Amino acid sequence: MSEVSPEPTTLAIDLQSPAFVRTIVAQMMAEPVPQDGIGRPVAKIVQAHIDTMNAVARQLAGEAGKRLFGAIERFDDGVRRLEPAARELGQRGWTIPVWQPLPFISWVATSVAPEHVDAFFESLYAENRPRRAKEVMTRVLSAKQYAHWAPLLDEIVTSIKSKRYLVAVPALLSVFEGTIAAAANRSYDKASPNEIAEQTLDASDLALKRLGWASILGFLTTVFGYHSFASAAPATLNRHWVLHGHGQPKWTRLDCLRLFQAVETLSVVGWPFGTVNENEVEVA
After folding, report:
1. How remote is the C-alpha of 141 from its chain's centroid?
2. Where are the domains of the chain?
3. Phi, psi of 143 (to 5 degrees)
Protein backbone atom coordinates (compact mmCIF):
# COMPACT_ATOMS: atom_id res chain seq x y z
CA MET A 1 0.00 0.00 0.00
CA SER A 2 1.43 3.32 -0.99
CA GLU A 3 1.79 6.12 1.52
CA VAL A 4 2.62 9.79 1.22
CA SER A 5 6.33 10.31 1.70
CA PRO A 6 7.28 11.46 5.20
CA GLU A 7 9.65 13.96 3.59
CA PRO A 8 7.41 16.70 2.14
CA THR A 9 10.22 18.20 0.09
CA THR A 10 10.53 14.97 -1.94
CA LEU A 11 6.93 14.98 -3.15
CA ALA A 12 7.11 15.28 -6.93
CA ILE A 13 3.85 17.22 -7.22
CA ASP A 14 2.65 20.78 -6.96
CA LEU A 15 1.94 21.36 -3.27
CA GLN A 16 -0.09 24.47 -4.12
CA SER A 17 -2.42 22.58 -6.47
CA PRO A 18 -6.08 22.19 -5.43
CA ALA A 19 -5.94 18.77 -7.14
CA PHE A 20 -3.21 17.74 -4.69
CA VAL A 21 -5.40 18.72 -1.75
CA ARG A 22 -8.34 16.73 -3.16
CA THR A 23 -6.14 13.69 -3.75
CA ILE A 24 -4.79 13.68 -0.21
CA VAL A 25 -8.23 14.11 1.33
CA ALA A 26 -9.53 11.24 -0.82
CA GLN A 27 -6.67 9.05 0.40
CA MET A 28 -7.37 9.92 4.02
CA MET A 29 -11.08 9.15 3.70
CA ALA A 30 -10.83 5.98 1.61
CA GLU A 31 -7.93 3.89 2.86
CA PRO A 32 -8.61 0.30 1.75
CA VAL A 33 -8.48 -2.66 4.09
CA PRO A 34 -4.88 -3.87 4.33
CA GLN A 35 -4.29 -7.03 2.33
CA ASP A 36 -0.66 -7.63 3.20
CA GLY A 37 -0.91 -9.70 6.37
CA ILE A 38 1.24 -7.75 8.81
CA GLY A 39 0.27 -4.46 7.12
CA ARG A 40 -0.37 -1.63 9.55
CA PRO A 41 -3.98 -1.24 10.66
CA VAL A 42 -6.13 1.34 8.91
CA ALA A 43 -6.26 3.71 11.86
CA LYS A 44 -2.47 4.04 11.94
CA ILE A 45 -2.20 4.48 8.19
CA VAL A 46 -4.85 7.20 8.21
CA GLN A 47 -3.13 8.97 11.10
CA ALA A 48 0.21 8.75 9.29
CA HIS A 49 -1.39 10.56 6.37
CA ILE A 50 -2.80 13.25 8.63
CA ASP A 51 0.54 13.77 10.38
CA THR A 52 2.27 14.05 7.02
CA MET A 53 -0.33 16.48 5.70
CA ASN A 54 0.03 18.62 8.81
CA ALA A 55 3.77 18.76 8.15
CA VAL A 56 3.19 19.60 4.48
CA ALA A 57 0.53 22.18 5.25
CA ARG A 58 2.88 24.07 7.54
CA GLN A 59 4.98 24.74 4.46
CA LEU A 60 2.06 25.95 2.37
CA ALA A 61 1.14 29.58 2.14
CA GLY A 62 -2.18 31.16 1.37
CA GLU A 63 -5.35 29.41 0.28
CA ALA A 64 -3.80 25.98 -0.39
CA GLY A 65 -2.71 25.65 3.24
CA LYS A 66 -6.10 26.83 4.49
CA ARG A 67 -7.88 24.28 2.31
CA LEU A 68 -5.69 21.45 3.54
CA PHE A 69 -6.05 22.35 7.20
CA GLY A 70 -9.79 22.69 6.64
CA ALA A 71 -9.94 19.21 5.10
CA ILE A 72 -8.09 17.74 8.07
CA GLU A 73 -10.48 19.44 10.48
CA ARG A 74 -13.48 18.08 8.54
CA PHE A 75 -11.95 14.60 8.70
CA ASP A 76 -11.55 14.90 12.48
CA ASP A 77 -15.16 16.07 12.79
CA GLY A 78 -16.31 13.05 10.80
CA VAL A 79 -14.34 10.69 13.00
CA ARG A 80 -15.77 12.28 16.16
CA ARG A 81 -19.29 11.68 14.84
CA LEU A 82 -18.49 7.95 14.83
CA GLU A 83 -17.84 7.90 18.60
CA PRO A 84 -21.43 6.92 19.63
CA ALA A 85 -21.41 4.03 17.14
CA ALA A 86 -17.96 2.90 18.35
CA ARG A 87 -19.12 2.94 21.98
CA GLU A 88 -22.30 1.06 21.09
CA LEU A 89 -20.29 -1.59 19.25
CA GLY A 90 -18.14 -1.97 22.36
CA GLN A 91 -21.23 -2.38 24.52
CA ARG A 92 -22.29 -5.20 22.21
CA GLY A 93 -19.04 -6.97 23.08
CA TRP A 94 -16.71 -5.91 20.25
CA THR A 95 -14.17 -3.13 19.96
CA ILE A 96 -13.68 -1.47 16.60
CA PRO A 97 -11.83 -3.77 14.18
CA VAL A 98 -8.88 -1.64 13.11
CA TRP A 99 -8.42 -3.79 10.02
CA GLN A 100 -11.64 -2.35 8.59
CA PRO A 101 -12.20 1.13 7.07
CA LEU A 102 -13.82 3.74 9.27
CA PRO A 103 -17.33 3.63 7.65
CA PHE A 104 -17.57 0.00 8.76
CA ILE A 105 -18.17 1.18 12.33
CA SER A 106 -21.36 3.09 11.57
CA TRP A 107 -22.49 0.39 9.14
CA VAL A 108 -22.41 -2.31 11.83
CA ALA A 109 -24.16 -0.04 14.34
CA THR A 110 -27.01 0.71 11.95
CA SER A 111 -27.26 -2.51 9.92
CA VAL A 112 -26.60 -5.38 12.34
CA ALA A 113 -29.13 -6.03 15.11
CA PRO A 114 -27.56 -6.18 18.60
CA GLU A 115 -28.51 -9.83 19.02
CA HIS A 116 -26.76 -10.70 15.73
CA VAL A 117 -23.44 -8.92 16.29
CA ASP A 118 -21.67 -12.02 17.63
CA ALA A 119 -22.87 -14.06 14.65
CA PHE A 120 -21.74 -11.30 12.31
CA PHE A 121 -18.19 -11.28 13.70
CA GLU A 122 -18.18 -15.07 13.77
CA SER A 123 -18.78 -14.99 10.02
CA LEU A 124 -15.90 -12.53 9.58
CA TYR A 125 -13.60 -14.83 11.55
CA ALA A 126 -15.02 -18.08 10.14
CA GLU A 127 -12.79 -21.11 10.70
CA ASN A 128 -12.91 -21.93 7.00
CA ARG A 129 -11.33 -18.51 6.39
CA PRO A 130 -8.54 -18.53 8.96
CA ARG A 131 -6.47 -15.74 7.41
CA ARG A 132 -8.18 -12.87 9.23
CA ALA A 133 -7.78 -14.38 12.70
CA LYS A 134 -4.18 -15.26 11.90
CA GLU A 135 -3.45 -11.69 10.79
CA VAL A 136 -4.92 -10.16 13.95
CA MET A 137 -2.90 -12.49 16.17
CA THR A 138 0.23 -11.87 14.10
CA ARG A 139 -0.09 -8.11 14.46
CA VAL A 140 -0.64 -8.38 18.22
CA LEU A 141 2.38 -10.64 18.67
CA SER A 142 4.42 -8.26 16.48
CA ALA A 143 3.48 -5.12 18.41
CA LYS A 144 6.49 -3.87 20.34
CA GLN A 145 4.14 -2.49 23.01
CA TYR A 146 3.30 -6.10 23.85
CA ALA A 147 6.86 -7.44 23.99
CA HIS A 148 6.48 -7.89 27.76
CA TRP A 149 3.49 -10.19 27.18
CA ALA A 150 4.95 -11.97 24.14
CA PRO A 151 5.72 -15.32 25.87
CA LEU A 152 2.20 -15.46 27.31
CA LEU A 153 0.60 -14.36 24.04
CA ASP A 154 2.53 -17.03 22.19
CA GLU A 155 1.15 -19.70 24.51
CA ILE A 156 -2.34 -18.24 24.17
CA VAL A 157 -2.11 -18.60 20.38
CA THR A 158 -0.94 -22.21 20.81
CA SER A 159 -3.93 -22.87 23.07
CA ILE A 160 -6.36 -21.38 20.55
CA LYS A 161 -4.91 -23.46 17.74
CA SER A 162 -5.32 -26.52 19.98
CA LYS A 163 -8.92 -25.45 20.73
CA ARG A 164 -8.12 -25.06 24.44
CA TYR A 165 -10.25 -21.97 24.78
CA LEU A 166 -10.79 -22.40 28.52
CA VAL A 167 -7.08 -21.74 28.97
CA ALA A 168 -6.86 -18.88 26.47
CA VAL A 169 -9.75 -16.71 27.67
CA PRO A 170 -8.63 -16.03 31.28
CA ALA A 171 -5.10 -15.37 30.04
CA LEU A 172 -6.33 -12.91 27.40
CA LEU A 173 -8.45 -11.10 29.97
CA SER A 174 -5.35 -10.64 32.11
CA VAL A 175 -3.35 -9.34 29.16
CA PHE A 176 -6.11 -6.92 28.15
CA GLU A 177 -6.53 -5.60 31.69
CA GLY A 178 -2.78 -5.08 32.05
CA THR A 179 -2.39 -3.36 28.70
CA ILE A 180 -5.14 -0.84 29.48
CA ALA A 181 -3.15 0.44 32.43
CA ALA A 182 0.12 0.32 30.48
CA ALA A 183 -1.35 2.16 27.49
CA ALA A 184 -2.51 5.00 29.72
CA ASN A 185 0.84 4.97 31.59
CA ARG A 186 -0.98 4.03 34.78
CA SER A 187 0.41 0.58 35.52
CA TYR A 188 0.69 1.37 39.25
CA ASP A 189 -2.68 3.09 39.49
CA LYS A 190 -5.40 1.58 41.67
CA ALA A 191 -8.13 2.87 39.37
CA SER A 192 -10.29 0.27 37.62
CA PRO A 193 -9.88 -0.32 33.87
CA ASN A 194 -13.26 1.35 33.33
CA GLU A 195 -12.11 4.47 35.20
CA ILE A 196 -8.82 4.56 33.30
CA ALA A 197 -10.59 4.26 29.95
CA GLU A 198 -13.14 6.94 30.78
CA GLN A 199 -10.49 9.37 32.02
CA THR A 200 -8.25 8.68 29.03
CA LEU A 201 -11.14 9.30 26.64
CA ASP A 202 -12.01 12.58 28.37
CA ALA A 203 -8.38 13.73 28.15
CA SER A 204 -7.89 12.79 24.48
CA ASP A 205 -8.04 15.44 21.76
CA LEU A 206 -6.99 13.34 18.77
CA ALA A 207 -10.15 12.15 16.99
CA LEU A 208 -8.91 8.67 16.07
CA LYS A 209 -7.61 8.04 19.58
CA ARG A 210 -10.93 9.14 21.06
CA LEU A 211 -12.74 6.79 18.67
CA GLY A 212 -10.75 3.82 19.88
CA TRP A 213 -11.08 4.65 23.57
CA ALA A 214 -14.84 5.18 23.15
CA SER A 215 -15.01 1.66 21.73
CA ILE A 216 -12.86 0.26 24.56
CA LEU A 217 -14.95 2.03 27.20
CA GLY A 218 -18.13 0.54 25.76
CA PHE A 219 -16.47 -2.88 25.70
CA LEU A 220 -15.43 -2.54 29.34
CA THR A 221 -18.94 -1.64 30.48
CA THR A 222 -20.09 -5.01 29.15
CA VAL A 223 -17.14 -7.39 29.52
CA PHE A 224 -15.83 -5.82 32.77
CA GLY A 225 -19.23 -4.69 34.02
CA TYR A 226 -20.91 -5.68 37.30
CA HIS A 227 -23.10 -8.77 37.07
CA SER A 228 -24.30 -10.22 40.37
CA PHE A 229 -23.01 -13.71 41.14
CA ALA A 230 -26.46 -14.45 42.58
CA SER A 231 -28.16 -13.88 39.23
CA ALA A 232 -28.26 -15.96 36.07
CA ALA A 233 -25.06 -16.15 34.04
CA PRO A 234 -24.43 -13.11 31.80
CA ALA A 235 -25.32 -13.45 28.14
CA THR A 236 -21.83 -12.47 27.02
CA LEU A 237 -18.30 -12.84 28.31
CA ASN A 238 -17.80 -11.25 31.74
CA ARG A 239 -14.38 -10.78 33.31
CA HIS A 240 -15.54 -11.15 36.90
CA TRP A 241 -17.45 -14.36 36.26
CA VAL A 242 -14.45 -15.81 34.41
CA LEU A 243 -11.70 -14.90 36.86
CA HIS A 244 -13.75 -15.60 40.00
CA GLY A 245 -14.85 -19.02 38.82
CA HIS A 246 -18.60 -18.45 38.60
CA GLY A 247 -20.79 -20.29 36.14
CA GLN A 248 -19.84 -23.09 33.82
CA PRO A 249 -16.79 -22.27 31.65
CA LYS A 250 -18.15 -22.49 28.12
CA TRP A 251 -15.90 -19.98 26.41
CA THR A 252 -15.34 -20.40 22.71
CA ARG A 253 -13.00 -19.53 19.86
CA LEU A 254 -15.17 -16.46 19.27
CA ASP A 255 -14.53 -15.23 22.83
CA CYS A 256 -10.78 -15.60 22.21
CA LEU A 257 -11.04 -13.55 19.00
CA ARG A 258 -13.24 -10.99 20.76
CA LEU A 259 -10.42 -10.41 23.23
CA PHE A 260 -7.64 -10.51 20.63
CA GLN A 261 -9.52 -7.86 18.65
CA ALA A 262 -9.80 -5.72 21.79
CA VAL A 263 -6.07 -6.09 22.46
CA GLU A 264 -5.30 -5.03 18.88
CA THR A 265 -7.63 -2.04 19.09
CA LEU A 266 -5.79 -0.97 22.22
CA SER A 267 -2.40 -1.35 20.50
CA VAL A 268 -3.55 1.12 17.82
CA VAL A 269 -5.28 3.75 19.95
CA GLY A 270 -3.71 3.36 23.37
CA TRP A 271 -0.14 4.32 22.57
CA PRO A 272 1.02 7.40 20.64
CA PHE A 273 0.40 7.13 16.92
CA GLY A 274 3.55 6.31 15.04
CA THR A 275 4.40 3.43 17.39
CA VAL A 276 4.79 0.72 14.80
CA ASN A 277 4.99 -3.04 14.80
CA GLU A 278 8.65 -3.94 14.47
CA ASN A 279 9.05 -7.56 15.55
CA GLU A 280 7.06 -9.09 12.67
CA VAL A 281 6.36 -12.32 14.52
CA GLU A 282 4.48 -14.64 12.17
CA VAL A 283 1.70 -16.85 13.52
CA ALA A 284 1.92 -20.23 11.81
Report:
1. 15
2. 8-80, 84-269
3. -70, 125
